[in-house]
Amino acid sequence: MVIELSEQYTHGPCKVNGKKYSDDELQKVVLKWMNKQGINTSQVKFNPDGTVQVNEGPSLKLHSLILQAEELGLEMKFTKKTLIELC
């Protein structure tokens, strides 16, 4: 059995004139940010459903990515999940 606890928050774009990015463009931008922040991009997995998995815990590196996304005027949705697996 798996018990999932989650909390969500949506943050609207800070800029009104933010550029609309295609999925491919956004993927390239995100990889560039991660590389610049020292996140090992070989640990990054792009799933077919659009989810990006990063094998890295919460840190200032990821917080920096959030700030850069705000600068681009992107809308963000934050979801914090805790999974408890009972065996």
Overview of the molecule:
There is one protein chain. The protein is α+β, with helices and mostly antiparallel strands and 87 residues long. It has a domain at 17-75. It contains two helices and four strands. The chain has helices at residues 23-36, 60-71; strands at residues 2-11, 44-46, 52-54, 76-85. The strands form two sheets. Strands 1-4 form a two-stranded antiparallel ribbon. The longest helix has 14 residues, at 23-36. The chain is globular, with a radius of gyration of 15 Å. The termini are close together. The mean pLDDT is 80.
Question: Characteristics of this structure?
Answer:
two-stranded antiparallel ribbon, 2 helices
Task: Give a brief description.
The protein contains two helices and four strands.
The largest β sheet comes out as: 2 strands, antiparallel
β-strand number: 4
The Cα radius of gyration reads: 15 Å
Strand content: 25-35%
Mean pLDDT: 80
Poorly predicted parts: none
Termini separation: 7 Å
Tell me the structural class: alpha+beta
**Helix segment count?**
2
Strand order of the largest sheet: 1-4
Classify the helix fraction into a percent range: 25-40%
The dominant shape is globular
Order of helices and strands: EHEEHE
